[in-house]
Amino acid sequence: MPLSEILRYNEEFVASKEYETYHTDKFPTKKMVILSCMDTRLIELLPKAMGLKNGDAKIIKNAGAIVKQPFGSIMRSILVAIYALKAEDVYVIGHHECGMTGLECGPLLDSMKDRGITQEMIEVLSHSGINLEGWLKGFKSVKEGVENSVEMIQNHPLLPKGTPVHGLIIDPDTGKLDLVVDGYANTVNA
What we know:
This protein is an alpha/beta fold. Helices cover 36% and strands 16% of the residues. The chain starts with a helix and ends in a 9-residue tail after the last strand.
């Protein structure tokens, strides 16, 4: 979609005051922060399948709903949602048929080279200590990806003790949610 089309639509959206339907504040009404995949099928489906409306949750999206770095931007966003925006529960929600399942670095690097990234640049990054193989790699299964992300969040030294961290998998066709990790069961003795 061209930028001009987006801006034209936005002008009409604002002029007709359609934004009033979505008015809320910055605090999540249902006190939850969700880490989900950026898959296009989940944009509207995930909130509807969870019974959420605008303002109910903080939603963070990335490829695969993955937390790989304990001090990266995903974990920082989760901590900000908890400490500054009053979220109490964390939900990691992967989905069936995720493109990160079985994703390997090689084909991505080949695609990058096809689009102008030089082998020299890749080598510079590698020699600079950046592990492209690990950074660009997906997971064996969605369940494993969700479990690993939940574990990374649960064990973070800055996460408040007793914070429930749940893991689920959504079916991108039906919206059915399958429980992988019950965060309440893991916080009973916290």
